Amino acid sequence: MKKKHLPFLLLVAFTSINFLQSCKDDEEDNDPTPTEQEFVADDNTFADFANWSLDAEKQGIDPAMGAAHGGNDSTVIRKIYFKDGQAPVNGVYPKGTVIVKHSANDSTYNVITAMVKRGAGFNSANDGWEWFILGADGKIAKDTAGVALRGANLMNGMCAGCHTNATSDWVFSK
Description:
- The protein is α+β, with helices and mostly antiparallel strands.
- It folds into two domains: about 1-35; about 45-165, no CATH class.
- The protein is built from two helices and six strands; from the N terminus they run αββββββα.
């Protein structure tokens, strides 16, 4: 008699396990808040930036800049490039937004800075933005110790300090 019931019990157990597993899978698939991934820029992120969408070009003294980015005089031209022409959505730039500012004059001044919206809780006090200093080749510059010039508090917080005055999600130019 016991052998007769064994296949039935195995079938019930197998069916129950499969049913419970399928319910668990449904719960995971219907999660409305998937884990947000962080966008972390590297040297490739800024490659060929001069061929991106040129969204702003400014020349001369900009009182809002003060000493930021240097070269705040009548000879400097500041070109602001947005990767993929990114624009804000309801006043907020999406994670992965990459902006490069190339400030230069004809002879003595050439500085390239950038900002990237990382997301996923990075630099939450500044809405996820990270700032960079780039080399002429578009790669992230390094200091004399070989440390990349990037971060939430780049230039001792000077980047964030000025960009808090921007009209659209820490961005002045768009």
